[in-house]
Amino acid sequence: DGDSSSAVVPFSFAFSDFKLVKVLREDARGKLVTLHGTVGDKDAVVVLERKAFDIPVLEECLQQTTVKETLQNDVYSTFDVYSSGSIAHMKATLIHPATEKHISKYSDREPFIVRETPELYRSVVLPSIQENKFSFQWVYNILEKKTESERIVAEDPDPEVGFVMVPDMKWNRENVESLYLIAIVHRRGIRSIRDLRQEHLPLLENILNKGLAAIEEKFSVKADKLRIYFHYQPSYYHLHVHFTHVKFEAPGTDALRAHLLEDVIDNIKMNSEFYNLKTLSYIVREHDALYYAFQDKKYFV
Amino acid sequence: DGDSSSAVVPFSFAFSDFKLVKVLREDARGKLVTLHGTVGDKDAVVVLERKAFDIPVLEECLQQTTVKETLQNDVYSTFDVYSSGSIAHMKATLIHPATEKHISKYSDREPFIVRETPELYRSVVLPSIQENKFSFQWVYNILEKKTESERIVAEDPDPEVGFVMVPDMKWNRENVESLYLIAIVHRRGIRSIRDLRQEHLPLLENILNKGLAAIEEKFSVKADKLRIYFHYQPSYYHLHVHFTHVKFEAPGTDALRAHLLEDVIDNIKMNSEFYNLKTLSYIVREHDALYYAFQDKKYFV
Description:
2 copies of one chain form a homodimer.
Chain A: E1 18-27, E2 32-39, E3 42-50, H1 58-63, E4 66-73, E5 76-82, E6 90-95, H2 100-105, E7 111-116, H3 118-132, H4 137-143, E8 154-156, E9 163-167, E10 180-185, H5 201-219, E11 226-231, E12 240-245, E13 258-260, H6 261-270, H7 274-277, E14 280-285, H8 289-296
């Protein structure tokens, strides 16, 4: 690494002296970019990285910001956050008013890997999902175009195989290399991949084909750059598919949570009951409703 | 998620109205922090995240910065980068003068997702693996205790179902929350999960059971904290299993690379030919041997 055959003359550096030649690497998740450029008549490499937040001075830091709302839906709002000048260096998602459930969902909690057998699904997980009576009103708002309609990337109104594709809140819609879209099915009552059988193949193949076509048309991103997957467990129990750019290390792409759509299709084709019979491994965290459900059944020893 | 039983009154938000109660979660790698606070008399959750760099305006953005040197060593310098005010929101590493080697090392190689059918495995991948004639001498040195013997965590000398478990180089062996161990099988000639059939179940179950027992005994880490998986493609074609702590975001845990050992066992039990018949998705990168192999067969369009 320390290849310094020519003598290094100390110099004082400012970015006004740096002429960009090429972006060598972008890490959207790590908020990092690597640049090739020149300083004077010599080549230079710059690794530029946003800093992690400094907790002790965070409040003071936030006092100096202004915000501009970018989206509002139900209790959720998103903002661009400006510390000064005309370029926003931060973004924020606000949940207000927030319930205990929201606070717990966004907290760091001890993880446990669960091996969910079909029997555990029926005796522990399904009753817990049914008991929690999640509201899907915000999902129906999107499907019925009451909110976010101007953000729709693709849609197929068919009640059996149709879906609406919208950008995920984690994507700014500017940089295609951090592309993150969600396809939400119109059909109600499919909670997760656990419910998928042969009868759903036309729905799954429709999402795959029309989703890919729309993304290529609108963003010029091809199939070989797209990670397409379900979460199990999902964060809400109305079937939806994640499309993320392969260069974007989105949260929830771990093998303990992400199930590739094409694998799901293949598995169901091989055996319609695959997801009715398969033991599925995933992480539950302390204070999750599911954590308590498993604890009640003495799953953890 | 959308628990909105109470009517939501639109309001205009500024961080000067936000009173911090507690930091719920910090993600230093993702430059993200989750906060619990209050706005008025109601609870609020804020997810605050630095933005990824916006390449089109990056140069303009950099012109407006000032830098302060924090370190200088040979061709390497590091800086705090201020866009304004007294708090640095970015940091930079400068390599100057930079050689071709530096530029190449810091460059990204373009990723492509491949859908490897059994036919593509036989016609493209297997010939490429065989042509490359990887040396396994370093693996055999470990198995024969010629190197790293003092590092062995578990072993079973049986030639059919035995293995040696050693720490991965990414683990410092101090913090159990970043535990990373590799179990390497004694049996030769199993290149990857593609080769696994029913006859290998005793081997796989032996690694799982004895590996878990050794980790619990030596490090007091239980099964429900361990992510246990194969890589496909692996980085070397002699069968081995990764054991990592669930809290450690190890590279290669993405659903496009990691295959959970317990899923592999279940799939083979369901169908001995599962990995002979399954299409497997993974990422290849420009300049990989496999990338060229697929390119030669006009796989990429």
